Amino acid sequence: TPGAAYVYRTTDGWASHTELKLTADDAEEQDGFGGAVAIAGGTIVAGAWNQGGGAAYVYRTTDGWSTHTEIKLTASDAAAGDQFGISVAIDGTTVVVGASGKDSGDDCTYAYDNWSGNWEWSGDDCDHGAVYVFLTTDGGATYDQVAKLTAADAASNDKFGYSVATCTTVLCPAAALCKYGNTIVVGAPYDNIDGGNGGYQIGQGSAYVFQTSDGGSYGQVDKLTAADAAVEDTFGISVAIDDGTVVVGAFDANDYKGAAYVFHATDDLPAYSQVAMLTPSDARRSAFFGNSVAIDGDTVVVGTG
Asked: Is the CB of residue 262 less than 8 Å from the CB of residue 245?
């Protein structure tokens, strides 16, 4: 099926609720619509990563979802296989869309791998990944692409953009509470990290932090890795941010039992330091703890599965 996103709303504390099913106006089979969703106020974003190069749809309501409008977002440099829409995030007037399959150049071919017995993409330019930032200045009637983010040390198969999270100053009640705002966090769960002595931690993973002062020009300010990083941790498979705290999931860390790592911005911004590693009391292998993460204030939620 093309996929869908379901919206549930209550006005009586969940004693009852209404259901709305969102689908794309141009839906086609296997689009992957709804594989990633995000909401902020009366605006919902749904990714459709398998629709050609991918797409993201922005739905907006002003009457509690009795009616709504639809806007389709695509990358300015869209190409087949980009997986644009594999992840989405929204905060205030900013929409962020990940494209973990974005290639950076021409050295990327689809070839048969004798070792795995599968047809696979290979080459130095394959699946570096990218993230696109869209901004509205007219209350959500239109969105313009204002930035394309890539890793400063991008490499093949990093899958940069597999997860995204954003926190802006738009919703802050006072400027004093927003010194960590205007931030985007991007997961690259298959990033191979230099382990020293000429070796690499294959699939260790990382997360990148970008900030802006004008809402459009973003700069990479930090790269996060786990203090106990190991091969195939998939650190960055999920990310979340709230004010100055970032949470990063790594479902293959901790001897494949999974973990989530908490980072906090230091006084010497924009650097972040790891302050906690979260693991479940009933940890077991292949539970995929860290597959999803969320944070609100002093509360962190970590999903499995």
From this structure: yes
